[in-house]
Structure formats: C-alpha cells, structure tokens
Amino acid sequence: METMTVAPEDLTQCLGDGLDYSNAMTSFSPFYSDIGLGIGNDSGIQCLFLHYNRITTRFLDPFLSMPRSVKAPQCTATGITQFFQSGVARIAFCEHNTWVVECEGVAQIDFGVAHAAGCQDLRHSTWGDDIHLFDVLLPTGDKRDPDQHFPLVLGLRVITGALTAGAGIEAPLRIEADPASRIVLAFSVRILDVGHESIVRRLQAASLTAEDAVRRTQSWLEQAMSGFRAEAGSAHERSVLARCVHALLSNSTEAPGHLGGRIAAFPSRGTYPTHFLWDSCFQNLATEMMHPGLAEDSLLLLTENLRCDGKMAHFLCSTWMRPHESQPPLVGWAGLRLVRARNNVGLARRLLPTLQRNTRWWREQRMTRFGLIAAKNGLETGWDDSPRFDRGPTVACDMNSYLLMQMRACAEFSRMLGDEAGAAAQTAEADRYAQRVVDVLFDKESGLFWDVHVASGEPVRIKTPACFLPLLADVPISLPTARDSIRKVLLNSACFFGKVPFPSVAYDETCYQPNKWWRGPVWLPVAYLMLILLDKTGFRAEAASARASLYQMIINDTNIREFFNSQTGEGLGAHEQGWTAAICLRLHREIHGQGTMVEQAVARDG
Length: 606
What we know:
Elements: E1 4-6, H1 11-15, E2 35-38, E3 47-50, E4 57-59, E5 74-75, E6 80-84, E7 87-95, E8 98-104, E9 108-111, E10 120-127, E11 131-139, E12 149-160, E13 162-165, E14 173-176, E15 182-191, H2 196-204, H3 210-224, E16 230-232, H4 235-251, E17 252-253, E18 264-265, E19 275-276, H5 277-290, H6 292-304, E20 315-316, H7 331-342, H8 345-365, H9 378-381, E21 394-395, H10 397-416, H11 420-441, E22 442-443, E23 448-449, E24 451-453, E25 459-460, H12 479-490, H13 524-536, H14 540-557, E26 563-564, E27 571-572, H15 578-594, H16 597-605
Antiparallel strand pairs: 1-16, 2-3, 3-4, 5-6, 6-7, 7-8, 8-15, 9-14, 10-11, 11-12, 12-15, 13-14, 17-18, 19-20, 21-24, 22-23, 24-25, 26-27
C-alpha cells in the first residue's frame, strides 16, 4: 500500500483548505500567538480571541466587517481567502500577533473599537500618517486573577488605501481603496506588555501583501515542526496526524508575565488557555519530536516559576498561578526522558536543583503519618472528580509513584553531573521510599496497590489504573508478582482491557460511568502510562494491541478530544486537546517502528 507523508514542507497540503477557525478552540493563531482570529461564514474577521489568564476573552464582535457576502471561503494553515461576487479578501499572519488583510474589489472598510464590550479608558493615538494605536483596559475573565482589568494595545497600519474619516472611537476609521481597488491593512496586538514602540516596529515590519505573509507563515511552520515526519496509510489518517501537529503548534503560546521568555504549552487555547503542570509533561511526548526547544520550555516554565518553598504551580498564567493545589510531580519523569534523548547535560543541570526543592516540598507539605505523601483532592492528582477521593484526601498510589520517579530522576541527573556521592545518597533514599510504598499500599491478597484514606487509614478499594502505577517506579515487587496482577486485572477484559482499553475506573466497578469525567472514561495520559508498564513488564503483544486500539480511536474520532467514552470511543470534552494530539503522534511513531520508550532506553543503555 502506498503511504503518504506528513512533513514540514507539506503540512498545509495535508490539512487542506477547509479548516474551522470559527471558535476559540480552533481560531487562526500561528507564530505562537496569544491571540486568535475568529473567522466564520461572514466576510472579514468575526472577532478576536485573547487567550489570557485561564479564560479566553472575546474582543470586538465583529472585528472587521466588509460589505460583501462570502461566496467560497478557503481556510488553510497559512491563511484565509474569502471570495466575493466581485472581489476577494486574504488574511494571513506575518509575525507573532500580527497579521495582514488584503482586499481587492472592496471600495471601503470601516474600523472602530468603540463597540468593545466592557472596555475602560479607551484611547486613540497616531504614529505618522498611517499607524493608529488603540489602548484599552478589558475586564479579566477569571475572578481569581488579582487584576480586575488587563491592558491591551491594538495597532492598525494602512499600507494601501487612504484614510478619509473618523478616528476609530467616536466615529470609525474609514479606509477607501486605491485606484486599483486595493486595500491592505496590517494589525498587531499586545496584551499586558503594551509598549507602543514595539507594536509600531512590528507594524512597520509587516508584510506588504498577504502573499508574503503566507510565505512567512509557511516558513514558521516548517521551522516549528522541523524534526517531525510521519507516514500515513490513508488520506484520513494523514489529515488527523497533520491536525495533531497543527493543534500542538497552535496551542504553543508566547505570552508575557510569568510565561515570558519561553513558549507555553496550552492544553487547548480556547478552553484551557494557561500552562498546566500535568498537561505539559505529556504534550512534550510529541513536541520533543517536532522542536526540542518547545518541550524544554514547557518544563522550564514550571521550574523557573517555582515558589520559594519549592511548590510547583498547578498552572501558570501571565499574572497569577493557581493558589491552592499543585499537580503531580511528573517533571522528573518528563525531564529525564528529554535529557536522555539527547544526553542533554545542560538541561539536567537546570532541572536538578528545582526538582530537589520540589521533592522536599512534597515530602514536607503533604507528608502523612504513613510515611508517604497525600493528595488533598482529585484536582491535585489531575484526576479531578475520581471516586478515589469521594471520602476525602488519600495517600494516593499515583502521586507517590510520580514522586518516587522524580527522586530517581534527580539521582540520575546528579550522576550525569559527576556527583556520584550525591547520586548514591539519593538512590538509597528513593529505595527506602519505594519500600515504604510497598509496605503501606500493596495488598498481597489482590496483588494491587490501593490508595489509603488519610483520616481512617482504610484502603480505598476501587480499581483504577493508579493501582498499577507503583510498578512503573521500580518498587521492590518481583517481576512474576507484577506480571500476575497485570495479567489478572489490567489485561482482564471485564476490568480494563475491553474494546476501549484502560478506563479511569474499571468496567466492573459499581461507580463506573463510561462518559463522566474521571469516573470511567479513557484519559490518554493515564492510558499511555499503562502502555509503558506493559512494555516494561514484558507484555509486548498486549501493549501492541492496546496501542493500536487507542491510536485508531483517536483517528476515528478526528476531533482530537480531551477524553473518550470507554464503551464507544466517542470523543468528549475540549477539541484540539494538546495531550491527545501529542499521544496520537507518539503512538504513531511507536506503532511504525521507531520503538517504545522502554525499547529505546534498552538500546541506548545496553
């Protein structure tokens, strides 16, 4: 069978010209922009989506209207073309948060900002004859943000055409076409960091035509996914793989404040426009294959914003962090994979001290009388409403496993950096902690690890994938014992290994609900960890079967959803979800012969 390629140079062709840019989750947003253009069925630009501080803000609706009805819109990865009965409009980005609108056959365009809902302190200024700047304070969408409003500056440059009336506030700016019936406008936006000089420079350097902007976008796409290449067996598979790449790049965001200086990994820019700890560790399963710098940034944003006592934020926004919970200590696991992949000693050096401080925070702030850490609630584990927490805080199998993996990662980083004594001490401490995990959480009769209810000390006997996660952390359980429990429960079709493998609660539990958040659906990050466990414990055939099922589920669903019904495989939750896109691309790589993480480690380490 002839295969088709998904590669940097042909991503735009793979995606086609029917992309949906009409909503916040799928808005047009290249160049790591923290804004997105909403493009619907009407001419011009429907609205501007501002992916700011956990809640996306919809700004100016409509943003730019044209006195034409769209005959045949084409929406590609590099630009939008709207055909009219007589005339055409082209829209394309040329830089971060900066885009060009080029019109032919449109006599005039009016533009103003006075209709922006909820705005305060609206101001207008000019730079020379052709640049207009609009400053505004907009209401913050999330009440947890300490600032009630945030500043935005919107710049407009008239490249071709003539201003004939208005100033954009009391009366709209009116731009009339040149003698050749052309209008070319450049727009640029800055959120929070609103220096006028920088936005003027961007407008002055903007493309003079949409064609040039398209070329710049294509160049950016090729650079951003330069390390990625995949082969697909069908046009549909090729389209979904390309869409996964496009989703990850569109959700990668350069934003100011706490997120400044690096590229954040938003899970879904419309639904979750912020940098989550848990999500980032799984999204870089693919971004490391596309552009290693993106994967490194996703972890360094977390470690560089570590609180002074070592607490790592649940998520990061430009001006605030989630104040109450943290999220699973997974940066050690994710960071070790990145460091090993390229023997990146420099990254190990940057990560080590912050991960050591974070490990101390968990052991000091979440320690229990059992000698293991507790999770305050499901949010802290990433498993939100899991029935594991219906009775309150637990000594959670998954959290202690992740912490143990982070302790072992720190030992390996120390060894790489030449600190053999430090590495030996950290390894010994990790081994003691691993024994404690077995002593407290392992049930010999069932062969499973159970969470322990903190208040009562009783096991929480609900079968979930968390029951197996300590086996990933090299706890002192013999391989035959581990394989026996995996065979009896994890690979049991009545529990976890049915048509849609690895639900978040076993099929046969009374609290199982196949489509209700963390009470039964399949969540790919946890399912992927189960694949690693199967590889690690020698169930290669079963791992291959589950890999194929999960991969085909994503391909069939098409929409890159947040989680999936564990009976039907139907996608649920947000669209263009980062971890689903990343794991789809990772599964494709593993299915098509590049090897699993375990196989790669064996080949590398001998």
